[in-house]
Amino acid sequence: MHSRRLAIITLLLVAPLQLSGQKKTTPPAAAATQKLDGASAQLSAIVASGNLADLRWPDFSDYKTHLTNFYRPTGYKLAWISGAPSNGQPTPQAIELINILQDADREGLHAEDYDASRWPDRLALLKNPHEARFDAALTVCIMRYVSDVHIGRVNPQNLGFEFDVSNKKLDLPHFVRQQLVAGTDLRAQLVGIEPPFPSYQRLSTALLHYMDLEKKGDGEKVLDVGGVSPGGQYTGVTGLANRLRLLGDLPDSATIAPDSTVYEGPLVDAVKHFQERVGMQPTGTLDYKTVVELNVPLSNRIEQMQLGLERYRWLPYHFKQPPVVINVPEFRLYAFKDDGQVGLTMRVNVGEDYNHQTPMFEGNIQYLVFRPYWNPTPNILRKEIIPDMEKDPSLADLNLELVSSNGKVISSGDITPAMLQQVRSGRLTVRQPPGPENGMGLVKFIFPNQHDVYIHDTPASLDMFSEATEGEEGELKRVASHGCIHLQYPDKFAAWLLRNTSGWDLDRVTKAMHDGRDNSQVNLVPPVPVVIFYMTVVAEENGDVHFFHDIYDHDRTLRLELAQGYPYPK
């Protein structure tokens, strides 16, 4: 209805196209050199200033070069208005693009960033001296929109995410001129520059669903009575059932008596389903934490999805080999097959949420090491191991070896004060020998990076990945490393990476881990891309939407950055 109303306003308020008054078009090469007048001169001045007060975000200095390269070859001819000077009307493409900009919320963006509410008035006033301002405004907004859809609004590197979007940037003047100014089915053109991931499309679909739900209101809050176990009395049954139906956890087919006061049956199953979706133990107990999560406003969930879509745009769109992706807030690894489907998945443990956060970056797993040594980083050596050696000089007690810079073992007994001083000065260091108690476990996966972060086994895997491992409020906790990623099933992951390497299967991997040669390296040819990423919301193929805690506060940081508006540092 909104698009139809906008089209009607345009037809009523804009003068019809008049071809008789048009001047002969000057060839682009000549137009670029001749003196400008009228709307073209005004348009040139607007572009040169890099600022247009009419815009929601007036400063477009970061797009000034793009606008210059867009308009200058045509002699600053208006791109979105047809007809005689002072009596033109917007082109069909302009109308379609305005409709697209006004629907930007449905793409996880903010329509007002593209002047959604300002376009009707601009269309009503579309006559000289406003033509140039209209044209420039639409070009700025559509260039911002195209860039935002394709690579995101914020450069991830400004937020500590080590993803390079520069090699994905479009030639905006060329794209807008060739694909949009005279194009057809512009929505399809713009869909073509979105992230090409099924998971992105699923999250976009989920966003639209939640936006539709929000229009109907959140409904009543779920009643907190201090905790209810399955089978217990609960006066808030009706409100709980309504909320669970709204969120899709309670099927429409489930029958709940309107006067029921017992928490049981389908309600318990629905709460378990909900708890699983928000990263909690699916106990079915209606405790305080569960009630808090149930009462999270839909607007908050929508914002989570919008932030997730933004981050998808930061990712590389093409990989030389099927990648391995680790979603840190989800504590989960995904290994993809050639057809884009998930071939292997497992839980992971990540860096502590205060001192040892796991960094976000992309790399390539180049080789595996079975029965590895553990060489502590300088930071761990200084802050943890040296203080331990000061308290207990027995290297055997600490399961360490004193080694020279070239790896020669100096001592495995007690460490003397002189030796300790050499460790402090960096002339000597320590390492942990291979074996079941090694900090790297029995296999590690190397993708060289500046953070000294690896994927690896851990001797504490049985305890670490027990379902009983949870936080104080019931959510599963997987934040206990110094930044590395610990695997639930390192043997299966090794076998997966080596599945195309002759002679390697799960049995051989198991043998290499437990009975093989120490510090044995196996190269991956070709290397396997790995992406360590941060998504607090994931839409599954079955339609379930999972929400995770913002363990490193990255959602909050991104939200604050986006609130600053344009120009965003690129």
Biggest sheet features: 8 strands, mixed, barrel
Strand order of the largest sheet: 4-5-6-14-12-11-7-15
Specify the helix fraction band: 25-40%
Number of strands: 17
Number of helices: 21
Count of spatially separate domains: 4
Low-pLDDT runs of 5+ residues are 1-33, 468-476
**How far is the N terminus from the C terminus?**
36 Å
The gross shape turns out to be globular
Radius of gyration: 30 Å
Strand content: 5-15%
Q: Whole-number average pLDDT? A: 89
- Coarse structural class: alpha+beta
Topology, please?
Elements: H1 2-13, H2 28-31, H3 38-49, H4 64-71, E1 81-82, E2 89-90, H5 92-102, H6 119-124, H7 131-151, E3 161-162, H8 172-181, H9 186-191, H10 198-215, H11 237-247, H12 266-277, H13 288-294, H14 298-312, E4 324-327, E5 332-336, E6 342-351, E7 360-370, H15 378-391, H16 395-398, E8 401-403, E9 409-411, H17 417-425, E10 429-431, E11 443-446, E12 455-456, H18 461-464, E13 479-481, E14 485-487, H19 490-497, H20 506-515, E15 520-533, E16 537-539, E17 545-547, H21 554-562
Parallel strand pairs: 3-7, 4-15, 6-13, 12-14
Antiparallel strand pairs: 1-2, 4-5, 5-6, 6-14, 7-11, 7-15, 8-9, 8-10, 11-12, 16-17
Helix pairs in contact: 3-4, 3-7, 4-8, 5-7, 10-14, 11-12, 19-20
